[in-house]
Amino acid sequence: MQIYFTFEPREDLRKPLVAEFPEVNFVFDVKLREEQLAKADIVFTYGEDLTAENIALANNLQWIFVASAGVEKIPAKAIAERGIFVSNVRGIHKKPMAESVLAHILALKRGLPFIYEQQKKGEWNKKTSLSELNGSTALVIGPGAIGAEIGRILQAFGVYTIGCNRSGQSVESMDETHMIADLHKHLPKADIVISMLPSTDETKYLLTYEHFESMKDTAIFMNFGRGNVVKETELVRALQNKLIGHAVLDVFEVEPLPNESELWKLDNVTISPHFSSHSSRYVERALEIFKPNLKKWVAGERNLENKIDLLRGY
């Protein structure tokens, strides 16, 4: 059995992996090479390097392990036609992303951008408005593993949490949960609205200008799921018209965000370059999911954690 990594993990992570599976031939590379892909039974990848053309060359390929929560960039049709098993690292991002979300919220509530700016100017200035996170209400759209972790931490700060998902079924760390179809009814309650939605046909452009009209004019809108949940033009218009207080964006319709985007020019936006999930422990945590699954695979089991339904996109 050959397992092909299309990137090269740190040596302190590679050595224990190889030692734990002596029966496996591991190949580590700095980028995808078709000659190695053609021999691989399993591919461990971030997903962005796979194309329909090179999937066609991978005659032995049975399992693709995607070291990313999103799988929208892999050639789903080509993979599904071959019946190749796909799984991902769903849940791996919950710790760093929850910390990123909390950091942005606290920064805005407690005036950190203002403080940093005054320090640069060398000015002792208290003329800004500060508020508290305690006692506020947060609405999480798409409260999966990451959203539940965000909810858990927010609750520790005395925040009331509302979740909106497809089913309306209760979710851990949400004080109440409703169907996304009823989102309009619950947006006016929220001081903070956090989108954690994946990119699917159902979620594309789900949020419209009318949704922002339903929010408080002091609300913080945060998109940490996928950029195409809302059209940039609609979001820009909402921000220009001050329908909400501030937006914190880690994801965008087009990435990197083009220089000509109107979002760069607005003073009520915080732009993060889609790295809220980054952490020095990222690959370590990915391997913590991969290794137990690999043990099952070697033993002939196919009931693996985080199996992906490519037709649904998650």
Automatic annotation (TrEMBL):
For this UniProt entry, the molecular function terms from Gene Ontology, in alphabetical order, are:
NAD binding; oxidoreductase activity, acting on the CH-OH group of donors, NAD or NADP as acceptor
Domain called D-isomer specific 2-hydroxyacid dehydrogenase NAD-binding: residue spans: 102-275
Q: Which residues form the D-isomer specific 2-hydroxyacid dehydrogenase catalytic domain?
A: 31-303
List, alphabetically, the InterPro entries matched.
D-isomer_2_OHA_DH_cat_dom, D-isomer_DH_NAD-bd, NAD(P)-bd_dom_sf
Gene3D superfamilies xrefs: NAD(P)-binding Rossmann-like Domain
Keyword list, A-Z: NAD, Oxidoreductase
Family membership, please give it: Belongs to the D-isomer specific 2-hydroxyacid dehydrogenase family.
Under which name does UniProt file this protein? Answer: D-2-hydroxyacid dehydrogenase
